[in-house]
């Protein structure tokens, strides 16, 4: 049967305002010009209706609308727009696989080159507020935690001053200039630079720090791998250049994490290969640091002369097992820095995550709070963990 008309129901007729508004009648050029806005969902409701009605009758505009919608989908990335921190390494490795460098960077200098580049990328877009964000430098002074307040710019000034020890060893300009440091130690140089520079330091410190880093990498590359045995004085000790470069890479990463924490930004650990080099350097320094703590009365007594292990001979040993990225196993001699570790004389076993061990060595984790798997001589384990924390400095 025919559908009943609304007039036959006795109900009032709808008013003119309640009737649906027909889409505006727009010419083809105007509708075509609206396709981009339609793809971005930026048209008004009336324009959207007009465009969609037109797409049902115009094949060329429908094809163009489909291409525009696909392009918009590519623009709306679901992932973060921040670059992958490993992108630089992958690109360089790919390039170097095709064309070896004419003057390669020594293998022991690549961690420093990578960590300074990563920190510089973090600083790239910092405004004045970020440069003056408060940062607390933390370390372990041998008996307990210590700290010093500064700013992001102050941290970069600290890195510039201490990296200057390597610059001096290579014959480059000293960032302190004619400034006299209280002592040629990292702390003394930092305090001297802070006193002589703008206080607090400003973002202008970034340029000389980065220029010095480039100069160091360039110089060690031109001098070749043989320069790695050159001595670098730290005032209260010295390291060969190849170890000093690893030490500076380690501190650059640690302080980059301090800066990232201050501005609430994520920061990844170094690559596994570089992390392994940093752990290896810390482990090699542990026997000497343990002996210094014994002389200061901060560790268990050394063996009596009758039981002293001759140089080059095996003695009591702690096995350090590092898990995760950059991991491995090291045998640490306990009786003397001149002794060698021996699996047959193992008295203790400690297992730690690689990043956790590095934070312990940086003084950012207390020896008593280090999450470690421990087995064996508790006194030897405590001595080694405290010696690891004592490697740290401002």
Mean of pLDDT = 86
Low-confidence stretches: none
Largest sheet: 4 strands, mixed
Our count of domains comes out at: 3
Termini gap: 94 Å
Q: Report the CATH C-level class of the largest domain.
A: Mainly Alpha
Q: Count the helices. How many?
A: 14
- Give me the CATH fold name of the largest domain: Four Helix Bundle (Hemerythrin (Met), subunit A)
Order of helices and strands: HHHHHHHEEHHHEEHHEEEHEH
Q: Determine the structural class based on helices, strands and strand pairing.
A: alpha+beta
CATH architecture of the largest domain: Up-down Bundle
**Principal-axes shape call:** elongated
Strand content: 5-15%
Indicate the radius of gyration in whole angstroms: 32 Å
Quick description:
This is Zf-HC2 domain-containing protein. The protein is α+β, with helices and mostly antiparallel strands and 394 residues long.
